[in-house]
Amino acid sequence: MEVALRIGVNLLKINRVCVHSASRITDSYAKQIQLNRDFSTEVTVNAAPLAVKKHKVSKAMKAYLERARENDEFMKTQKLEYQIGKRHLANMMGEDAETFTQEDIDNAIAYLFPSGIFDKRARPLMKSPEEVFPARKAAEFDETGRPFHSMFYTGRPNFFKLLYDIVEEMNKIHDLEERMLRRGTRADANQKIDFTGFQWMPKEQLESMLVEQINDLEYTNFTNAMDRLVSLPFSYKCQNFIKKFSKPLLDQTKQLEIPKPQFDADGRQFVTTYECLRKTARGDVTVRMPGTGKITINGHDITYFEELQSREQVLFPLIFAGLLGKVDVEANVEGGGTSGQAGAIRWGIAMSLRSFVDQEMVESMRLAGLLQRDYRRRERKKFGQEGARRKYTWKKR
Amino acid sequence: MLGRHSFKLPRLTNMCVAYSTAAAEASVEQLYNRPKLTSTDYRTAENNTKQHSAVHEGKFYTLSPEQKKQLFSGGGLPRQYEQQIKTFTEACLMVRPTSLELLNYIRNTDFTRPVVRYVLYGENGVGKTLTMAHVLHYGLQNNFVLVHVPWVPNWMKRPKETVNATTQEGFIDLPFDAAAWLVHFKTQNANLLTQLQLKTSKDYVWTKREATPAGSTLLELVEHGIARIKFASETIAALLSELKQHANDDKCKIMVAIDGFNAFFHPETRILGDNKQRITPDRVTLTQPFLDITNYNWKNGVCVLTVDKIGMTEGYMDSYLPRYLLGKEGFEHLDPFVPLHVDNYSDKEFASCIQYYLDRNWIQKTPEGFDEQLKYLSNKNPYTLMRLTRSL
Amino acid sequence: MLRSLCSRLEPQSLICAVTRGMSAYSPHYIEAIFSKKKQLNLKETDEYIKLSHLPIKAAKNDDSESIFYNELVNKMVNYITKGGNKKLARELLTKSFECMKRVQIERMNLNPESKDTIIADPEQLLIKAIENSRPLLQLTAIKRGGVKYQVPIPVTEKRSYFLAMKWLLEAAREKERKVHLPEKLAWEVLDAAYNQGRVVKRKNDLHRQCESNRAYAHYRWS
């Protein structure tokens, strides 16, 4: 096949040289036809290129079809294997094969193949083939080589189609607005989309949805376009479209649950927070209510901390919540330095105070950064540098 | 100038907004809204210590400048307090329950019995020295002869000059410090001594040519000591023994006030002897007379002592209790004594202190709840409160 | 210089998308708002509702709601800090404040009538001093045709605060060695608060230079 191709090409070159008046035709196929017509004596010669061309065209398509078929078969076999394997596993575990869910599978695998590998994605897993193997696109162009999608030649048809869709929706809404304006009706403010609790689908998810790779810049464009769409007054008309690409944000305050205070021997309520960590300091804090504002740290007074800053830190949550003289605090702390210990106690007091304070104040404390564990640790020194960031003095020579 | 090239003002960042609002806030009335002060809440006009009673507890009384100069020109008040006096242009002492208790005891002492020793102890910065100052003032106003040592560790740790003693072998003299103390004694007791006309009972021979004959006044003795620094330490010894004698003979009442008494029993001093070794306090000539006078073998007197953690060197600062700070020797020497615990401010005292600072313009900003915050930050410790309000 | 200017003109809202390379927090964490006043202000705007869905970083060690806290003063302490010894820096600044206060109270006592006009609050004095010594323009070297011209360009607010504080400290550190930093700093701040002294002179000199070099201002955009 290839030999014939090469001969054909060489002959073509000779033919080109011979034919002076051959007008420039970009389409090589058309060129072939032209030459065919001009030089009928070289029928045998021409037959080869024609044949080559036909194979060339359908070869790509053939290869494509071949690949698609292979993929389909592969997926079918995988699915079958998965089903059979699931039933085997259920049998092994002594469970009912019909009602064996994915969760059960995960538990079974974790039990049978215990692995201490740090990255969870590297551990043995058994999932349905759709999740494991990445989605691929079906045939994108037909036998003649004509692409199905009108934007095939952009390289990322689905993505750009999406952008076009957004613009379509925007235009629709603009028209609607104009019509409404002429009628004199305004947009219903109650139905306006509230976007505060949502964010746009992250880039990875969008990529998997469109089965295409997306640039950072393009993703930003997409987000901006969607923002514009949402900001229109009549945007609630295409709510479904917007919902497809939005993801609800978690409500942060409702993340952690607030412990209930217990009662001690004197009948006072108290809450203990264990594992108060900051840098290397470890401690636990008990807050009792009602109290007189007594603060005990490791048996000593607040004078345990000589520095003013550490004392301020210990009192910070109490001042913020307004419970300065109303609760008693007992803390035990060890390890770390002055600042670390103070930070640990601060976090402990804040977490314990949540039980004695209403929801609004808890939200306030969270915004003030009191309830967040400070995970910052000392940055390591790197070779070739004097410290973590400081470089050696640069000498020109 | 900038008309042609008009630039856009850079957008305010969060912090800059904070700065400008910090500046703007500072001028908001709320920060400077002082509570109305009634001076009788924290001041009392009663300057006669004899009349101080529970009514005056927690209030400040003023020390007149002449009396203050007479009492404390050689030391006796903490350095920070002196600075405060300068800024506030007045010397005010707070009447505290411990001092009231002590004054009560002193008022009711039976002077025919042997001397009672009172020991003030407490945490750092709780008010021991100022309580002693209050008691000294009482002594001054009630015709006590004052034997006041401002701060003993000064002698042990930072002597001005050390000299080998002449009369006693192996002992160390501190001539300048002794002379300074004699000056201090003179300023405190000059009037009283001229009034009482106490005379020496025996001869004191200093050298072949110098001698103080018997029958000369104590003032002359003191002046001789000041003039001849070489013999200052011995003068002190002589003076104190004379005073003890006179007190025993019912001629006068003596108040002995020593701050930092535990320095006399510290295992070591910072004075280096001849062979560059540290010497113990009992090798210093000055220790002996003061130990003598704090004995209980005389009458017509009062002994007020302070034991302080600050007077000790590193490694001996575990506790502030007298038994620990005095050690075995000191405790035995002072046993029996009346211990008096000086504590942090109570709520009432704290409030009155805050009001006093506000009155003297020492506390400039008064945002909401500042007194509560100060209370918990300082734990009602007087010294810590003073340090905290420095930057307020 | 121009590059840094461009980066400053990025939109700055509470939700800052740009963080340093290696941060213990993910990029979508926002800074803590520990001042109660700021939180109250926020509640009135729409931002507050957005915040309930965002994770927040932990508050820093130097920030608190105590009476001693002031952002500018905090910054000043940071600039005085050397070798990580913030405790000492804070102590020095407190002593400096004490010095200032004593001087002002002395002045107040000398003229009892001027009690209302004389400010003795050290924080206020510091803020006033910084405001008085903030430059509006600064000079940069811009190279055009082989020659480096000193071109006057506007100064961002942050940088102007930084320059004011830096100049104050430099002036304080310059003088005699026997006198300690707190007293020197106190005198510098008092001078600047009354619009006298070396720092204000330095700022005025800079302004005069900018004025004289205004012919080169178009080199900014070449």
From TrEMBL, chain A:
It holds the Pfam family Ribosomal_S9. GO terms for biological process: translation. Keywords: Mitochondrion, Ribonucleoprotein, Ribosomal protein, Transit peptide. It comes from the Eukaryota. One of its GO terms (cellular component) is mitochondrial inner membrane. One of its GO terms (molecular function) is structural constituent of ribosome. Its main location: mitochondrion. It is found in: Mitochondrion. Belongs to the universal ribosomal protein uS9 family. This is Small ribosomal subunit protein uS9m.
TrEMBL record, chain B:
It is found in: Mitochondrion. It holds the Pfam family DAP3. One of its GO terms (molecular function) is structural constituent of ribosome. It comes from the Eukaryota. PANTHER family: MITOCHONDRIAL 28S RIBOSOMAL PROTEIN S29, SMALL RIBOSOMAL SUBUNIT PROTEIN MS29. GO terms for biological process: apoptotic process. InterPro entries: P-loop_NTPase, Ribosomal_mS29, Ribosomal_mS29_met. Belongs to the mitochondrion-specific ribosomal protein mS29 family. This is Small ribosomal subunit protein mS29. SUPFAM superfamilies: P-loop containing nucleoside triphosphate hydrolases. Keywords: Mitochondrion, Ribonucleoprotein, Ribosomal protein, Transit peptide. The lineage of its organism: Eukaryota, Metazoa, Ecdysozoa, Arthropoda, Hexapoda. The keyword Ribonucleoprotein applies. It comes from Ceratitis capitata (Mediterranean fruit fly). GO terms for cellular component: mitochondrial small ribosomal subunit.
UniProtKB/TrEMBL annotation, chain C:
It holds the Pfam family Ribosomal_S7. Residues 65-214 form the Small ribosomal subunit protein uS7 domain. It comes from the Eukaryota. Keywords: Ribonucleoprotein, Ribosomal protein. InterPro entries: Ribosomal_uS7, Ribosomal_uS7_dom, Ribosomal_uS7_dom_sf. One of its GO terms (cellular component) is ribonucleoprotein complex. GO terms for biological process: translation. Belongs to the universal ribosomal protein uS7 family. This is (Mediterranean fruit fly) hypothetical protein. It comes from Ceratitis capitata (Mediterranean fruit fly). The gene is RT07.
